[in-house]
Design a protein that fits this description.
Strand content: 15-25%
Radius of gyration: 13 Å
Distance between the termini: 13 Å
Order of helices and strands: EHEEHEH
Shape: globular
Number of strands: 4
Number of helices: 3
Helix content: 25-40%
Largest sheet: 4 strands, parallel
């Protein structure tokens, strides 16, 4: 299986982030890595995340693209899926994407 990391860019996402992460962590097989890049949230949304989720805390909100680039630099997986925290993955979608990437 091709190693796919998931990077979620967060800024004050509140209850959306846990729902997003639950859908990511439920994938079978699970992603090689799950990383939340937090853009200096003030709502505590990046605190107390589930096990297996790494948090990269930015000192300021540099915007989505800056956070994505930080996330890409922080992972060693050959493929990375970038998500907004209002995204929820359907069961099996990560495996389907990895399978397709493996064929390319």
């Amino acid at each position: 299986m091709t190693a796919v990391a998931v990077v979620v860019v967060n800024w004050n996402a509140g209850a959306l982030l846990p729902r997003c992460l639950a859908s990511v962590l439920a994938q079978q097989p699970p992603p090689a890595e799950v990383l939340v890049v937090d853009n200096a949230s003030s709502d505590g949304s990046a605190d107390g995340l589930p096990g297996g989720v790494r948090v990269l805390r930015r000192p300021d909100n540099g915007g989505f693209a800056v956070a994505v680039n930080d996330g890409l630099r922080a992972t060693s997986a050959p493929f990375v899926l970038v998500l907004n925290p209002d995204t929820e993955l359907l069961p099996g979608c990560l495996a389907a994407a990895a399978s397709r990437l493996q064929r390319e």
